[in-house]
Amino acid sequence: xxxxxxxxxxxxxxxxxxxxxxxxxxxxxxxxxxxxxxxxxxxxxxxxxxxxxxxxxxxxxxxxxxxxxxxxxxxxxxxxxxxxxxxxxxxxxxxxxxxxxxxxxxxxxxxxxxxxxxxxxxxxxxxxxxxxxxxxxxxxxxxxxxxxxxxxxxxxxxxxxxxxxxxxxxxxxxxxxxxxxxxxxxxxxxxxxxxxxxxxxxxxxxxxxxxxxxxxxxxxxxxxxxxxxxxxxxxxxxxxxxxxxxxxxxxxxxxxxxxxxxxxxxxxxxxxxxxxxxxxxxxxxxxxxxxxxxxxxxxxxxxxxxxxxxxxxxxxxxxxxxxxxxxxxxxxxxxxxxxxxxxxxxxxxxxxxxxxxxxxxxxxxxxxxxxxxxxxxxxxxxxxxxxxxxxxxxxxxxxxxxxxxxxxxxxxxxx
Length: 415
Ligand SMILES: Cc1cc2nc3c(=O)[nH]c(=O)nc-3n(C[C@H](O)[C@H](O)[C@H](O)COP(=O)(O)OP(=O)(O)OC[C@H]3O[C@@H](n4cnc5c(N)ncnc54)[C@H](O)[C@@H]3O)c2cc1C
Known about the structure:
Blueprint: E1 7-10, H1 14-25, E2 30-33, E3 45-48, H2 50-58, H3 62-66, E4 74-79, E5 85-90, H4 94-99, E6 105-108, H5 109-121, E7 126-129, E8 134-139, E9 144-148, E10 154-157, E11 159-162, H6 169-175, E12 181-193, H7 199-207, E13 210-215, E14 218-225, E15 230-238, H8 252-258, H9 264-269, E16 278-283, E17 291-292, E18 295-297, H10 312-329, H11 333-362, H12 366-376, H13 388-391, H14 408-412
Parallel strand pairs: 1-2, 1-11, 2-7, 4-13, 11-18
Antiparallel strand pairs: 3-6, 4-5, 8-9, 9-10, 12-15, 12-16, 13-14, 14-15, 17-18
Helix pairs in contact: 1-5, 1-10, 2-10, 10-11
The structure holds flavin-adenine dinucleotide (FAD).
């Protein structure tokens, strides 16, 4: 019999909420603790590849997410300097639907987060608590005791899922590691009302494709979100002024300078990229162990990765469904954690390494960029061979989806 104590989830981001939902769907009582005073996500977009929409289907919230998500027709790589198309993938054609049963979606983060939060709130087995920063997790043979920064309270849990993000305190305590590795790249991002856009930009928004403008040590990503009402832009570049433990690098002036060689379409878009906050980009090398007795890592805490394959949250959703499945199979949470980690570490590590390599490919300069463009010039938009492994979860980690596989027509339909 499972313990009468709840399973605790630390962190109420996409990973933590999905984990809480998956555990509750597996019949476990869950208490989720989040350090922020209120649940929320940042105002930017998120790409959800078919492995993520499969996970959302399994969690029973795909239809809700599709209510506001956009189903882009194409994923296009453009050369940010020459302005020419390098390669593309047709995300609604027959080759896609024959290979993937679930749609490629782009969504606003707050919409996905809100759908997960609403599903958790509707789940009687889930208790959500905010304003609690976990400072300590002490485990013995049959429980974990959590302590908090804000109050002198203890929470006894059967077991703990650490979904406390990139800078996970629990991961550092369990592994003895230092800080994540800064890539010296920084991102500026945000979603603006489509109505504010004119000319080429409004045409791009209407086209609804996901466009990646790849350039030397920089790139720009664009796609519509929230039924096409908002247009998401992410400008990423390597800073030559990187200084550890400081926020004086990766400035707006450097952004302008780095993108000065870009083509007109990219330079036109740059003034509309949100500048209110900058995100330094980090990852870590893959970690072979995610389960430590009654504590297991999930999401960015387990596999922080650079965003170049747009898979961090997708992998967190895969983690959640794999966790749910393991909890259904194993009464003891520690056994379930071992099974969950055994199914997930290798694949997530491969995606972490792949993300790093894809970033290098995007950011090539001179002859390197020319060779990349030549090598990709003859790829067919129907050729998913290179990316299919990323978009397909490993066998044994997912259960049967809640809805029937999407047909070409349903994938192409507006969400
Ligand atoms: C520029 C950029 C673009 C990206 N684009 C994509 C994309 O298109 N597709 C994709 O799949 N991924 C993308 N990602 C990655 C994705 O954003 C992350 O992988 C994902 O949000 C991680 O979710 P998480 O729940 O694991 O962590 P987080 O979202 O970081 O959530 C962690 C939560 O834990 C809380 N917390 C932290 N410490 C404590 C504590 N001690 N006690 C209690 N609570 C705590 C935090 O407040 C937070 O709410 C992108 C990332 C970046 C930087």
